Amino acid sequence: MMWTLWLIVITAIVISVVLLALGRGDGLAEEEPDDVVVRLPEDRSMVASDVETLRFPLALRGYQMAAVDEVLDRLAVELALRDAEIRQLQGQDVQPPEV
């Protein structure tokens, strides 16, 4: 009796795997490839939604360092420019941003 139950369970598992392999069932969700290039707007300053939708390409142990460095450098420049503009609008002494 016990071996019959195991046979039924194993058969159900094998059938399920075969059906999934043939494309029946929900399957896996589509994923973006890992080598997606980070796209930043070239024609305008970055806005909050650009940062919210930003996705870095994955590397073997985390994210690709060059892509992360590029975004951080761009954000640093834009934040420095924005801070200088705020100081200017507030009537304070303006110091050029360090880049």
Write structural notes for this entry:
Helices cover about 50% and strands about 5% of the residues. It is mainly α. It has a domain of about 55 residues. It has a two-stranded antiparallel sheet with strand order 1-2. Strand 1 and strand 2 form a beta hairpin.
Q: Tell me the series of helices and strands, N- to C-terminal.
A: HHEEH
Name the overall outline. rod-shaped
| Unreliably modeled segments | none
Class derived from helix and strand content? mainly alpha
Strand order of the largest sheet: 1-2
Query: What is the end-to-end distance?
Result: 76 Å
Question: What is the strand and helix layout of this fold?
Answer:
Layout: H1 2-21, H2 48-52, E1 58-59, E2 62-63, H3 65-89
Antiparallel strand pairs: 1-2
Concise structural overview:
With 99 residues, the protein is mainly alpha-helical. The chain has three helices and two strands. Strands 1-2 form a two-stranded antiparallel sheet.
Notable characteristics:
mainly alpha, about 100 residues, two-stranded antiparallel sheet, about 50% helix, rod-shaped
